[in-house]
């Protein structure tokens, strides 16, 4: 067997989960692991800014054997590590694939970032962008690379719609309009039929990928943005930059 062949055999579907802090990325990963772990060999890489909190959450949920959940600590600029310089993440993914070969799916959780951070296609084969209804009904309409062009847009926590005065049907329609027909999935962990649809989407993506029929797309760069420098606690100098 050639080396090339071996690599192909051990190469998992790398699936990124992006979206703002608190929208439910870790919860989505936990649900996917729980429902799909008997069908697929799965590994998880989390991206935390300074801690391994997401990895610890997933370990405490017992969704996978602990050694299949690893944290990459990205420092102050989490979108950089999933888009501009993906080296740390790529190494983590490749190590995981090597250590547990053959894996079917590696899930990569982005560090919670602003609304426009997306994965580089150099790191993931496909990506899910997660919004939640609690972030406001107009978020979907505002668009952006992840909302517009991720392989799947999840509108999470639809159980909360009535509590936060968001018209979920309208939010989903707005999202669909922002996506030119690309899929939008209303989700709540309290509604098992929606979780099943999420699992079906991943099954289908894996199938297409494994058959060589999936072409990774780049949702596009994030908008120019500002964020505090790592040492702004001491100095208070806001530092801004932009990526392309
Ligand atoms: N009501 C409701 N809460 C949810 C749902 N999914 C996640 N959450 C909650 O949203 C919060 C943030 O979830 P988490 O997965 O940590 O978000 P992350 O920061 O994007 O990884 C947690 O308190 C979750 O329990 C859902 O479907 N419905
Ligand atoms: Mg998380």
Can you give a write-up of this model?
InterPro entries: CobW/HypB/UreG_nucleotide-bd, P-loop_NTPase, UreG. One of its GO terms (molecular function) is GTPase activity. It is found in: Cytoplasm. Keywords: Chaperone, Cytoplasm, GTP-binding, Nickel insertion, Nucleotide-binding. By secondary structure, the chain is an alpha/beta fold. It has a single domain, classed as Rossmann fold. It contains ten helices and nine strands. A seven-stranded parallel beta sheet has the order 3-2-4-1-5-6-7, with helices on both faces. Helix 8 links the parallel strand 6 and strand 7 (184-186). The radius of gyration is 18 Å and the shape is globular. The model is unreliable at 1-7 and 230-244 (pLDDT under 50). The structure holds guanosine-5'-diphosphate and magnesium ion. Magnesium ion is lined by residues 25-26, 54, 109.
Q: Topology, please?
A:
Elements: H1 3-10, E1 13-18, H2 25-36, E2 42-48, H3 53-60, E3 69-73, H4 78-84, H5 87-99, E4 105-109, E5 126-132, H6 139-142, H7 145-149, E6 152-156, H8 168-177, E7 184-186, H9 192-210, E8 225-228, H10 232-235, E9 238-241
Parallel strand pairs: 1-4, 1-5, 2-3, 2-4, 5-6, 6-7
Antiparallel strand pairs: 8-9
The protein binds guanosine-5'-diphosphate and magnesium ion.
The site of guanosine-5'-diphosphate (GDP) has 16 residues, from helix 2.
Task: Give a short summary of the structure.
With 244 residues, the protein is an alpha/beta fold.
């Amino acid at each position: 067997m050639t080396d090339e062949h071996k690599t192909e055999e051990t190469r998992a579907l790398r699936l990124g989960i992006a979206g703002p802090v608190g929208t439910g990325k870790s919860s989505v990963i936990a649900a996917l692991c729980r429902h799909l772990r008997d069908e697929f060999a799965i590994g998880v890489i989390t991206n935390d800014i300074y801690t391994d909190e997401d990895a610890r959450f997933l370990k405490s949920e017992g969704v996978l054997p602990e050694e299949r959940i690893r944290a990459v600590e990205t420092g102050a600029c989490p979108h950089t590590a999933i888009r501009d310089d993906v080296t740390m993440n790529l190494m983590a993914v490749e190590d995981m694939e090597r250590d547990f070969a053959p894996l079917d799916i590696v899930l990569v959780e982005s560090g919670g970032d602003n609304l426009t951070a997306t994965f580089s296609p150099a790191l993931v084969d496909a990506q899910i962008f997660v919004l939640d209804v609690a972030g406001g009904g107009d978020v979907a309409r505002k668009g952006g690379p992840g909302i517009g062009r991720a392989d799947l847009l999840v509108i999470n926590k639809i159980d909360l719609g009535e509590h936060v005065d968001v018209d979920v049907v309208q939010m989903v329609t707005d999202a669909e309009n922002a996506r030119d027909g690309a899929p939008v999935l209303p989700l709540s962990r309290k509604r098992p039929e929606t979780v099943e649809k999420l699992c079906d989407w991943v099954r289908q993506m894996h199938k297409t990928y494994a058959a060589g029929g999936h072409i990774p797309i780049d949702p596009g760069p994030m908008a120019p943005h500002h964020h505090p420098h790592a040492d702004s606690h001491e100095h208070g100098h806001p530092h801004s930059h932009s990526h392309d």
